[in-house]
Amino acid sequence: MKQLFAAAVLGISMAGAAYAADPIVGTWQTIKDDNGNSGQIKVVECGAAICGTLEKSFDANNKPFKSKNQGRKMIWDMKNEGGGNYGGGKVYSPDRDKTYGGKLVLSGNSLNVKGCVLGVCRSGGTWQRVK
């Protein structure tokens, strides 16, 4: 019985060690928007998808301020399509107050963000990994 228990514990710990977070998980610094503001988006796994929430906001002078959008999901329902590509989800643009069908492309510590609505696409720029 002790051997069975030890084997089960070992199996669970090995499974946990084999699990690795999706490479997009982390905190990302956005580019300045149309108003000169930027932010830090915390990207996490949300079930089988990826989502990101605005954690910090910065004004045009890079001074932190409390945005009404802090705590709001900026990215949701994104699926890892392989090769650094993510899609099928949504991206919210606070400066335009619009939600777009999103595409993300991860390359090292850079994340290219794009959103489209009704065939019109807009670049969200290339975000840089903070941590």
Task: Please name the defining characteristics of this protein.
131 residues, mainly beta, 1 helix, 9 strands
Walk me through what this model shows.
Strand 6 and strand 7 form a beta hairpin. An 8-stranded antiparallel beta barrel has the order 1-2-3-5-6-7-8-9. It contains 1 helix and 9 strands; from the N terminus they run αβββββββββ. It has one helix spanning 2-18; strands at 26-29, 38-46, 49-58, 64-65, 73-82, 85-93, 98-107, 110-117, 120-129. It is 13% helix and 55% strand.
Concise summary:
With 131 residues, the protein is mainly β. It contains one helix and nine strands. The protein has one helix spanning 2-18, and strands at residues 26-29, 38-46, 49-58, 64-65, 73-82, 85-93, 98-107, 110-117, 120-129.
Identify the overall geometry. globular
Structural class comes to mainly beta
Q: Can you give the mean pLDDT?
A: 88
What is the CA-atom radius of gyration, in angstroms?
18 Å
Q: What layout of secondary structure does this protein have?
A:
Layout: H1 2-18, E1 26-29, E2 38-46, E3 49-58, E4 64-65, E5 73-82, E6 85-93, E7 98-107, E8 110-117, E9 120-129
Antiparallel strand pairs: 1-2, 1-9, 2-3, 3-4, 3-5, 5-6, 6-7, 7-8, 8-9
